[in-house]
Design brief:
Layout (H helix, E strand, L loop, with lengths): L2 E4 L1 E4 L6 E5 L6 E5 L10 E3 L6 E3 H6 L3 E4 L6
Antiparallel strand pairs: 1-2, 3-4, 3-7, 5-6
Protein backbone atom coordinates (compact mmCIF):
# COMPACT_ATOMS: atom_id res chain seq x y z
CA UNK A 1 0.00 0.00 0.00
CA UNK A 2 1.47 3.32 -1.09
CA UNK A 3 0.24 6.49 0.58
CA UNK A 4 -0.07 9.71 -1.37
CA UNK A 5 -0.66 12.98 0.46
CA UNK A 6 -2.45 15.79 -1.33
CA UNK A 7 -5.25 17.61 0.46
CA UNK A 8 -5.65 14.50 2.55
CA UNK A 9 -3.75 11.25 2.81
CA UNK A 10 -4.90 8.70 0.23
CA UNK A 11 -4.01 5.10 -0.52
CA UNK A 12 -3.10 4.25 -4.10
CA UNK A 13 -6.63 2.92 -4.73
CA UNK A 14 -8.06 6.39 -3.99
CA UNK A 15 -9.45 5.65 -0.53
CA UNK A 16 -8.57 8.09 2.28
CA UNK A 17 -6.13 6.72 4.86
CA UNK A 18 -7.66 6.46 8.31
CA UNK A 19 -5.44 6.69 11.38
CA UNK A 20 -5.92 5.32 14.89
CA UNK A 21 -5.09 8.28 17.15
CA UNK A 22 -4.94 8.70 20.93
CA UNK A 23 -5.62 12.26 22.06
CA UNK A 24 -2.76 13.62 24.21
CA UNK A 25 -5.27 15.75 26.16
CA UNK A 26 -8.21 13.49 27.02
CA UNK A 27 -6.34 10.18 26.34
CA UNK A 28 -9.31 8.76 24.39
CA UNK A 29 -8.69 6.84 21.16
CA UNK A 30 -10.41 7.75 17.89
CA UNK A 31 -10.16 6.97 14.16
CA UNK A 32 -9.82 9.90 11.81
CA UNK A 33 -8.58 10.95 8.37
CA UNK A 34 -5.56 13.23 8.28
CA UNK A 35 -6.54 16.90 7.90
CA UNK A 36 -4.20 19.12 5.91
CA UNK A 37 -3.77 22.84 5.67
CA UNK A 38 -1.68 25.55 4.04
CA UNK A 39 1.30 24.89 6.35
CA UNK A 40 2.75 21.75 7.95
CA UNK A 41 1.57 22.88 11.38
CA UNK A 42 -2.04 22.60 10.17
CA UNK A 43 -1.68 18.90 9.32
CA UNK A 44 -3.24 16.70 11.98
CA UNK A 45 -6.44 15.45 13.57
CA UNK A 46 -9.39 16.96 15.43
CA UNK A 47 -10.35 14.97 18.55
CA UNK A 48 -14.10 14.27 18.46
CA UNK A 49 -14.19 14.03 22.27
CA UNK A 50 -12.50 17.20 23.52
CA UNK A 51 -12.16 19.05 20.15
CA UNK A 52 -8.39 19.49 20.55
CA UNK A 53 -6.40 19.80 17.32
CA UNK A 54 -3.64 17.17 17.44
CA UNK A 55 -0.78 18.01 15.04
CA UNK A 56 0.39 14.95 13.08
CA UNK A 57 4.07 15.64 13.72
CA UNK A 58 3.59 15.86 17.49
CA UNK A 59 1.34 12.78 17.63
CA UNK A 60 3.81 10.78 15.55
CA UNK A 61 6.73 11.79 17.81
CA UNK A 62 4.77 10.57 20.86
CA UNK A 63 3.66 7.31 19.15
CA UNK A 64 -0.01 8.34 19.43
CA UNK A 65 -0.91 7.66 15.78
CA UNK A 66 -0.80 4.72 13.37
CA UNK A 67 -2.42 4.02 10.01
CA UNK A 68 -5.33 1.58 10.10
CA UNK A 69 -7.88 0.14 7.72
CA UNK A 70 -11.52 1.05 7.99
CA UNK A 71 -13.62 4.15 8.33
CA UNK A 72 -13.19 7.21 10.50
CA UNK A 73 -15.23 7.47 13.69
CA UNK A 74 -18.39 9.52 13.45
Amino acid sequence: MIRLCYGRCMTEDGEPTVFEVTCPHCKKPFREELLTGAAARYTGFKCPHCKLFVPYERADEQDLVEPTEGQASA
